[in-house]
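B., you asked whether I could sanity-check this one before it goes into the benchmark set. Here's the sequence:
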Amino acid sequence: MKNDFNKEIEHWFADTIGKCFELSIRDNLDSVSYTGEFLNSEWGSDVLMEDRLKEYNSVPYMYSRSKRNLNLKQGHTYDPYVMWMYGYLVKHWVNKENKKPQDIWKILPLDRFNDLFGFYHTQGWNYIIADANKRYGDGGYK
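And here's what the prediction gave me:
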């Protein structure tokens, strides 16, 4: 059973990822490309799996490291709340199921999350994960 301290740390990690994703809008970075690179790159996967804990030093630090380590391009951006919520969800999902970020991307990429945002934003984190797994499972988003 997790104590309150562990829950607070997990929330902080997830919130940090969400805020980092949200910052990408400031630079007009293509939202789908940014999140896809983050989840599918070795650097981003290491951050999400907490193998690179130093990246959690601060949101601006993590964001600057993402700009250095990811192949980024400018383009279409999504709503800031969509970006924050997706980042939070991804980190929560990694923690809850010990799932690789690349697998999460296959099941629920940002564009699909955005399509379902009107429904998902009213649901709890665990419900969203269960729904995405049910809809797309290991076969991934089609």
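One thing to flag: The chain has a mean pLDDT of 91. Otherwise nothing jumped out at me.
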